[in-house]
Automatic annotation (TrEMBL):
Coiled coil: none annotated. Its main location: membrane. The chain crosses the membrane at residues 16-36, 42-70. The lineage of its organism: Bacteria, Bacillati, Actinomycetota, Actinomycetes, Micrococcales. It comes from the Bacteria. It holds the Pfam family RDD. It comes from Georgenia muralis. Keywords: Membrane, Transmembrane, Transmembrane helix. Residues 40-111 form the RDD domain. This is RDD domain-containing protein. InterPro entries: RDD.
């Protein structure tokens, strides 16, 4: 059983914009340092996502799209929740399976929610 979500869940469109921005940045970083290598891009994406969500509660893509990652009560996720969320996101399937509350399985696993902040 998961905790009830007290913050508004972001729309799918905004989440996809944020994801696209983050993936483009990770691609540019990995291409600049390592050439085109898909697994390197995934590693850069994962590290960037985990560090930023753990410390700031949002990635660069989230900020661009006006989103933030929070706990259902509205707090910052912290490093453990951010790691669980990032692993689920990088596995892809949990990120594309979501429930009636609009949260992806990776967010349910981590106990987080992507919310609109502007």
């Amino acid at each position: 059983m998961t905790a009830p979500v007290s913050v508004p869940v972001a729309t799918l469109g905004r989440r996809l914009v944020g994801l696209a921005v983050d993936w483009a940045l990770a691609s540019a970083i990995s291409a600049g340092f390592l050439g085109y290598e898909p697994m390197a891009t995934l590693a850069v994406f994962a590290l960037m996502t985990w560090l930023m969500v753990a410390t700031l509660g949002a990635t660069i893509g989230h900020v661009v799209a006006g989103l933030a990652v929070r706990t259902p009560a509205g707090g910052l996720p912290g490093p453990v929740r951010a790691l669980a969320r990032t692993v689920g996101l990088c596995l892809v399937i949990p990120a594309v399976v979501w429930g009636p509350d609009g949260r992806g399985l990776h967010d349910v696993w981590a106990g987080t929610v992507v919310t609109r902040v502007r």
